[in-house]
Every structure is written in structure tokens, then in C-alpha cells.
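@channel sequence for tomorrow's demo:
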Amino acid sequence: MNYQWYREGVKISGATSRSVKIQGDGTYRVMISDTSGCEQWSTPFVVGSTSVNDLLEGSTISVFPNPTSGQVTITGAEGVEVTVLDLLGRTVAFVPSASMTEQLQIDGAPGAYVVSMRYAGRTESLLIHKR
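C-alpha cells (generated this afternoon):
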């Protein structure tokens, strides 16, 4: 597999491995390709916060620790659909309706993962890193 990372739509020079060192806040994506020429973009994700303030009115959702060794805690997301995706878009964890404090285990390889939270037709995503 070949990887090329982008930040704000601009190629990150030399960022061609499975994970990327974050270069600051922004929207990140990775283009994954194989030797036969098949290409697939990751879902865009925003880096800059480990909390979501406006998904649930009057509540702050927190995701920690980040980076993680595999276990992630999500607080303040009661009733929110939570999906954790690897960079190929595969679901590695799913909770259809989170409790006030939800603990998820990420069993995949070290690298970046997207935590996608959906509630009332809105979706917010956060990037987490597994060591």
C-alpha cells in the first residue's frame, strides 16, 4: 500500500507512511493506493480539539486519552451514535447509543483513527492516535 497525506487539501511533503505527524489544526485526508493503481480517499477529519461543543446543545463531549494505547473514554455523549474508523474506512468500534461515559477498545494497529459522532442529523469527527 502507498499513502499520501493532505492537510487543507495540500499534499504534505514526505508524509507517505501509514500515520502522519500532525502539523497543526486543520482538515486531514490520506490517499491510499496499491500497486495496481486502485486509489481510495479516507474520510476527511478535523484536528484541533478533543472535544465537540455543539453536537449536543448545552453539553461538551470529550474523547481521551489522545494519544491512546487502545482504550478510549468518551464522556458527555449520551444518546450519540459513535463509530471509530481506521483510515481505510473500516469500522473498528460502534456504539448505536452511547451512555454518559462510554469506553471503547481499539484493537487495530498503531496509527490514526477517526471517531465519528452522529446525533440528530449532525456528524462531528475527531482524530485520535493509537500508539
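heads up for whoever presents: The longest strand covers residues 111-119.
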